[in-house]
């Protein structure tokens, strides 16, 4: 660890509170804190994209769902309002989305026609081919099978063939009933007619509610219900319903919908690494990404202080802390995957701005901006302070990314560039949310609990929650379905 010119060697800056376990005789330069480099997602190096197969007849809404879930434009996802039907062998051609979503490989069944069992045969060949691949990166990680609610015969020959005969092995399947809003609309019209025919002036709000409930029960009976009656309940199969009106931004389901699809897909995956990869690939749930930020942040933290392999180090030098910060930033960046961000974040100037943005402006004034440029002036910290600083970095980076995520999602036309990023960082530093997060960690993390993984994690989660409570409106989903995302 470089110590030349390290101001703390001669005159360590004492940031410790009275009674803390700071000892001046510890030579921080001799402490080795680098753990082995961590493999963040616990996946083979080559497996950095989530490979998903989407099956369903033309026009059921496959591309629409992909556009919503993966944050790619309808054009990129191939939403077709006019033409339907594509070549049968389309499934063999992987779609990737450089610049828009780097964690995704999509296989779209394309021309899957009702009654044409040749399509199922082609899909089966494709699934078998993928199953036989030795590398995880080349295997299918999940299948979504889409069935439209606008068909009054949801289970047809193709579905019978697929769910009775095709062996998908351990690949999880989500059956997605699409266009659920059409059931709601049909029930709505029916109810309005019924009320008029009885000479009643319909109360639209009330009719909407009735229609929604009628649609849910029809779905439970004739769609989900029929599926379960025909094929039974299966361990590795989950069922979701989606209704995205073409002119609306969101799902009609007040509970469930895209949220459920994203969550169920994650829950069905068996490996933690794949769950993380899924979390990165999906561009819908900020909640899920925040949770994963805590996971990878903590993992990076403990690895950096060498917990478990070397004894916990009470006095981490500043250079090691900076390395930790850089690792935390890199790992959390991978979880959020906001287009354009990863490259910018690598620039030293931006990196330092993020670092500075996680702490009180007053602290940086007190210690000097120089410190924040290199962090080398931090000097030896007690274990409690080390943990506190690192946890603030994890919480800070995660909360900052949540803001970047919404900024990007709410303004898809605007790329996150250097200026936008710097403004977001400044706003974040000044925000009450960041302050609350920071106060919480200052108050709860001490040398007494800094050694406890569970305690650190619990306070980190609480600090992030506090930070989120103060989030300005512009950083949440424009139209909210289930509370905040
Ligand atoms: N009402 C409604 N229309 C939808 C829904 N999903 C897709 N659509 C519309 O259905 C058409 C076909 O959608 P697309 O995603 O291209 O279907 P794909 O052929 O399965 O990929 C488009 O006009 C979509 O806007 C939905 O949930 N509800
Ligand atoms: Mg399509």
Give Rg in angstroms: 26 Å
Bound molecules: guanosine-5'-diphosphate, magnesium ion
Strand content: 5-15%
User: Which overall shape is indicated by the principal axes computed on the Cα atoms?
Assistant: globular
Number of strands: 6
Please indicate the count of domains. 2
Determine the structural class based on helices, strands and strand pairing. alpha/beta
Helix residue percentage: 40-55%
Uncertain segments are 1-36, 307-315, 364-379, 478-485
Output the number of helix runs: 18
**Largest sheet features:** 6 strands, mixed
Cross-sheet strand order for the largest sheet: 2-3-1-4-5-6
Mean pLDDT: 79
The sequence of SSEs as H and E is EHHEEHEHEHHEHHHHHHHHHHHH
What's the end-to-end separation, in Å?
42 Å
What are the salient characteristics of this protein?
single chain, six-stranded mixed beta sheet, 2 domains, binds guanosine-5'-diphosphate, alpha/beta, binds magnesium ion, disordered C terminus, disordered N terminus, 485 residues
Question: How would you summarize the topology of this molecule?
Answer:
Blueprint: E1 50-55, H1 62-70, H2 74-77, E2 95-97, E3 101-108, H3 117-131, E4 142-148, H4 157-165, E5 173-178, H5 180-197, H6 204-231, E6 237-241, H7 258-268, H8 272-281, H9 286-304, H10 318-336, H11 341-346, H12 348-357, H13 361-367, H14 369-374, H15 383-410, H16 418-430, H17 432-444, H18 453-469
Helix pairs in contact: 3-4, 5-6, 9-10, 9-15, 9-18, 10-15, 12-16, 15-16, 15-17, 15-18, 17-18
Domain G: 51-178
InterPro entries: GTP-bd (IPR006073), P-loop_NTPase (IPR027417)
Protein name: G domain-containing protein
């Amino acid at each position: 660890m470089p110590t030349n010119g390290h101001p703390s060697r001669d005159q360590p800056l004492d940031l410790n509170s009275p009674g803390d376990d700071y000892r001046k005789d510890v030579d921080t330069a001799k402490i080795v804190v680098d753990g082995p480099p961590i493999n963040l997602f616990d996946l083979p190096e080559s497996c950095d994209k989530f490979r998903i197969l989407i099956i369903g007849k033309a026009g059921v809404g496959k591309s629409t769902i992909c556009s919503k879930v993966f944050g790619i434009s309808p054009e990129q996802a191939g939403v077709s309002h006019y033409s339907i039907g594509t070549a049968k062998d389309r499934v063999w051609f992987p779609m990737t989305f450089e610049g828009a979503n780097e964690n995704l490989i999509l296989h779209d069944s394309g021309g899957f026609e009702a009654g044409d069992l040749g399509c199922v045969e082609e899909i089966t060949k494709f699934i078998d081919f993928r199953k036989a691949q030795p590398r995880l990166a080349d295997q299918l990680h999940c299948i979504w099978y889409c069935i439209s609610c606008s068909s009054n015969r949801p289970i047809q020959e193709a579905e019978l063939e697929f769910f009775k005969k095709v062996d998908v092995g351990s690949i999880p399947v989500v059956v997605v009933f699409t266009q659920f809003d059409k059931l709601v609309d049909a029930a709505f019209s029916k109810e309005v007619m019924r009320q008029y025919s009885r000479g009643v002036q319909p109360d639209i709000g009330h009719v909407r509610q009735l229609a929604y409930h009628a649609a849910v029960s029809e779905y439970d009976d004739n769609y989900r219900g029929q599926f379960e009656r025909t094929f039974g309940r299966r361990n590795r199969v989950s069922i979701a319903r989606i209704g995205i009106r073409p002119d609306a931004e969101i799902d009609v389901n007040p509970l469930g919908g895209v949220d459920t699809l994203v969550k169920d897909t994650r829950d069905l995956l068996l490996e933690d690494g794949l769950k993380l990869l899924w979390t990165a690939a999906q561009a819908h749930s900020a909640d899920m990404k925040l949770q994963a930020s805590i996971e990878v942040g903590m993992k990076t933290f403990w690895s950096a202080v060498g917990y478990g392999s070397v004894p916990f180090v009470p006095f981490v030098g500043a250079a090691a802390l900076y390395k930790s910060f850089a690792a935390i930033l890199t790992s959390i960046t991978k979880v959020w995957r906001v287009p354009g961000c990863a490259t910018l974040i690598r620039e030293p100037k931006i990196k330092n701005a993020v670092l500075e943005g996680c702490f009180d402006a007053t602290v940086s004034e007190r210690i000097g901006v120089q410190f924040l440029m290199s962090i080398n002036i931090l000097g030896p910290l007690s274990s409690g302070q080390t943990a506190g600083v690192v946890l603030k970095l994890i919480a800070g980076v995660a909360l900052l990314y949540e803001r970047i995520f919404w900024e990007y999602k709410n303004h898809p036309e605007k790329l996150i560039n250097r200026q936008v990023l710097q403004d977001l960082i400044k706003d974040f530093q000044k925000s009450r949310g960041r302050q609350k997060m920071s106060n919480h960690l200052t108050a709860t993390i001490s040398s007494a609990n800094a050694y406890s993984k569970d305690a650190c994690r619990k306070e980190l989660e609480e600090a992030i929650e506090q930070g989120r409570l103060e989030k300005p409106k512009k950083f949440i989903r424009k139209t909210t379905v289930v509370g905040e995302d």
